[in-house]
Specification:
With 374 residues, this protein is of the alpha/beta class. 54% of the residues lie in helices and 8% in strands. It has 19 helices and six strands. Strands 1-4-3-2-5-6 form a six-stranded mixed sheet, with helices on both faces.
């Protein structure tokens, strides 16, 4: 296990960050509470340079602005594995913007690595075996046990060495500029998130398969669960499982015992809040038809008899390019991108490049072949 320093005071943070100021590379990871708690929060920040590892406790140090100043330095490259979530929660809860990112997962995707998880990459390239037993641990508990801190330190201690290997392979395959383009997009992403207006109850897996009268019940019982989860500060699925919650809408119970008889139900929650649940079900059952929730319809396109044929040709070309270049299909062009190309019919490379989400390297290396497919 790597050695580390646990930072729990603003003074300790300032002193530790001063030793990192001006470093060209810094590995970063975070641990959050979203799996166990209703209130998502950053519970630990791991930082490593080539010699040392720091574990910063944001529950003890609420002001992480000095860390934000360090990470905003464009001269420091910050190495993260699967950066999207880490960047989003640092931006959301601490307004931290990481200016110069190297994502080892993105690099592995561009190299078409068969396994892109951090544990698999560390084992393959450095012979480091990672124990995943704390992957779903409750990082909001305090004090954190020594084995959990050891685990957290291991997430970043070897990340810079892995980055060096992946950069060398990217350059050898002449894909380094591809990686730079992808990395640059990660910096702005947390601050340009599209407005999400979809109701929370519709985001749960299986909800959109319900009929309107079932959705009326589901919206009520989902709101019941959210309220209890917020009061308990527990992840909603730990209060009442997703599958039994859906079953209440599909087959409304006649009484509390009917709920208790269903698989996966938390009896203790029902003992305290069962009547509130039955009231929520009744509200859904009694809702007038004209007030039933409806699932928003997708944009309807004008009839185009040749669209499916064009899309089929595009997929065939994409699959051929994928094999020829030893790439993942999404690196050449994701399915949604192919659908956009088939719909908009770009006539030249400039028009193709203007399609939202299209990368410069995709246009340069694969654009002409994709246009021919049209």
């Amino acid at each position: 296990m790597p050695s580390y320093e646990l930072i729990t005071t603003p003074e300790g943070l300032a002193r530790a960050l001063k030793t990192l100021d001006g470093a060209p590379l810094l590995a970063l990871d975070t641990e959050a509470s979203s799996f166990h708690r209703y209130q998502e929060r950053v519970c630990l920040v791991q930082l490593s340079d080539r010699e040392r590892t720091l574990l910063v406790d944001p529950l003890a140090i609420t002001d992480l602005s000095p860390l934000g100043t360090l990470l905003a330095d464009p001269g420091m490259q910050v190495v993260i594995h699967d950066a999207d979530y880490d960047l989003r929660i640092l931006a959301k809860y601490h307004r931290i913007r990481v200016e110069n990112v190297f994502d080892t997962l993105v690099a592995a995707e561009l190299l078409n690595e068969p396994e892109i998880g951090l544990a698999a990459l560390l084992l393959k390239y450095q012979g480091v075996r990672v124990d995943k037993k704390f992957q779903k641990a409750d990082w909001s508990e305090r004090p954190l046990p020594a084995p959990m801190l050891d685990y957290a330190a291991g997430d970043t201690a070897n990340l810079i060495a892995l980055r060096d290997i992946l950069e060398e392979k990217l350059r050898a395959k002449e894909r380094w500029t591809w990686a730079e383009e992808e990395f640059a997009l990660l910096t702005d992403a947390p601050f340009n998130l599209p407005a999400d207006e979809e109701p929370a109850f519709l985001k749960m897996k299986g909800a959109k398969m319900l009929k309107p009268h079932q959705l009326a019940i589901f919206r009520e019982v989902h709101g019941w669960r959210e309220g209890i989860a917020a009061k308990m500060d527990r992840a909603p699925f730990m209060v009442f499982g997703n599958e039994p919650l859906l079953s209440l809408a599909i087959d409304p119970p006649r009484n509390i015992q009917d709920v208790l008889d269903r698989k996966g139900v938390n009896a203790r929650v029902l003992q305290r809040h069962g009547q509130e649940l039955m009231d929520a079900i009744q509200r859904g059952l009694q809702l007038p038809k004209e007030e039933w929730p409806r699932i928003p319809r997708h944009k309807r396109w004008d009839r185009d008899d040749d669209y499916e044929e064009r899309l089929k040709r595009l997929k065939q070309v994409r699959d051929r390019l994928t094999l020829a270049s030893d790439l993942r299909p999404g690196i050449v062009a994701a399915n949604q991108m192919l659908m956009d190309i088939a719909r908009t019919l770009p006539g030249d490379l400039d028009t193709l490049a203007a399609i939202p989400g299209m990368r410069r390297y995709q246009v340069e290396h694969f654009g002409a072949d994709l246009l021919k497919a049209l």
